[in-house]
Each structure stands twice: as C-alpha cells, then as structure tokens.
C-alpha cells in the first residue's frame, strides 16, 4: 500500500484532513496519469456528506491520513483513455462512492459492484495499483470509466452533485422493492434530511402517496408545502402513529440516530417492507411482534451500483429532480463541517471547487 506510485505524476490541488482534529487544509498531491481505462475530470462541484466528517475525524477508526474526502463529484472530462471512448472531452460527468471492484464476481457481473467483496471507495480506499484513493475535494480526479456516469444536460452541476450518493442510496431500494413503474402505492419516508428530502421527491415523481415521519413537527410545512408530501406524522405523537397503523405499503428509513423500528413497523400493511439506509452508531431496536403479526420485512440497503446510478441520473433528468443545496467556497469547508455536525443545513452542502458560486 502506498499513497502514491511511480505513475502518480499528475499534480493536483485539494483539501485534506491531516489528523483526527478533522480540520480541512489545503493539500497538494499526485494522482495517477490517465490510463487506458481512465477519464481525467476537472472537478466543478463536490457535495459534503456526513461520511466525510466521520472520516476526517477518524470516528470509525479506519482513516488513512492525509484523507481527501468527497464522493459526490460533478465535473467535465478533460482527458480520455483509449478504452474509455463512451466519454468524450467536455462531457458532463459524475463520480460517486465507487472507485474499483473486482469486475469478475457474480455481483459485479450483475452491476451490483457496491456489494463486491473487493469494492473500494473513491476516497480512503486502496486502488488496483496499491495507492490510497483521494476524493473530490480537489480540482482534478482520475477515474476508471466504468465508475463514471453521464449528467443530463438539463440538470445544474451543483445541485445534482449529492445525487451521486444520496440520490442512488434512496433510489436503489425503491427500485428493488417495486416502487418504480408501479404508481399508486403508499410510501413512508422516515426523516427529512439529505436522504429523506430526495426520497420524497422520488416518491412523488414515481406517482406514490408519500407520508413523511419526523420527530420535528416544524418540518410539516417543508414536507408538504415545498416538497409535495401528502401526509405528515410526528413520530412521537402516539395518536398520529395510531391513526396511521397498517396504512403504508413501503417505508424508507433514512435516520442515522438510534431509534426503535417497532412503532414504525406498525404503520406497514400486512406483508409490507421497511428498508433502512441510515447508519446509526448503535444497534436499532427491532421487536419481533410487529414482524410476526404483520408478516413484515426489514431490509438494509447501501449506495447503488453503476447501472442504478446511471438510471437514477437519467430519471432525475426526465423529472427535473435535484437536491436542495447550499453552495460554499472551499475556504469555508470547516465552517460547513461544523454546521453539518449540528445538522444545520438544508439539505446538503456543495463545494464550488473553483471557488466561484455559479451554476454551470
């Protein structure tokens, strides 16, 4: 394992955390030269994910410093390898969580690279050449073309950036559980944050009746008035929860704080499904009775594979779906990280890597 190898001669400017303080500072480093399967991308925008904060502060104990975060990347292609002809110079593209996988296993063959045992992330991973991967908090990234997607021309590059992670993370379980192409179902979304607000947009675009569950009554106006949700349930209100029993076909739980799934499961119809995409640092409470007496299922899901990511992006282009973002300049990343830790963002921060706040 090495931070750089002999082929890493492309000088890149970026921003990195050097230690567990999590402070992000300027960092100049080397990337690999464009290979036969690569595209070199000028990074225009990069979303800030809560995962970035975890890695910057080494809260999961696996950070390899210095770490350059960022896995919600949009930009334009400036160089193309001979095997990457599906992309042309000037193409609008995106890079999400995935940098590499084995490309040989059953999962890779089925475009479920995200579940491959040898999958490596866009940052803090180990690429095929043994180098540590660096993410999108940088002005240039070199990516294998098989992990790059096209961005529809009608979507702004800033507010589309978080779709590379949050978008496909909520899209894949919707697709996997029959919520795509079968309108008219009743869908619940637990939590109205970065993931949840996109889930509401998808649910409405796909023709479903969407109910938002939140512990914050103040979010009802946002959920219904601006995002178009049909109903709103305060999950701490026992009367509202009782009134909603056995009313939903499918629930997507986006909450990353510890909570009990029992009351939420009671909202599902018989044979309904709950999928959790949040990642609490403590185990979720899962009582057996709501499962047994409702023949209900609980599943997990992570970010999607490349086929799902491109399909999601194309559908976003068709329905004009983007994330609600606050665009910042690189010199305010630390302030944004501090606000993110306090959940003071609606709903995603996006870094204008060029330092110029504008839509492209």
Automatic annotation (TrEMBL):
Keywords tagged on the record? Metal-binding, Oxidoreductase, Zinc
Cofactor dependence is on: Zn(2+)
MF terms in GO: cinnamyl-alcohol dehydrogenase activity; zinc ion binding
InterPro entries listed in its UniProt record: ADH-like_C, ADH-like_N, ADH_Zn_CS, CAD-like, ER, GroES-like_sf, NAD(P)-bd_dom_sf
GO process annotations (BP)? lignin biosynthetic process
Enoyl reductase (ER) domain segment(s): 22-351
Assembly notes: Homodimer.
The family this protein is said to belong to: Belongs to the zinc-containing alcohol dehydrogenase family.
**PANTHER family tied to this protein:** ALDEHYDE REDUCTASE (PTHR42683)
Name recorded for this polypeptide:
Enoyl reductase (ER) domain-containing protein
Organism of derivation = Eucalyptus grandis
Q: What is the lineage of its organism?
A: Eukaryota, Viridiplantae, Streptophyta, Embryophyta, Tracheophyta
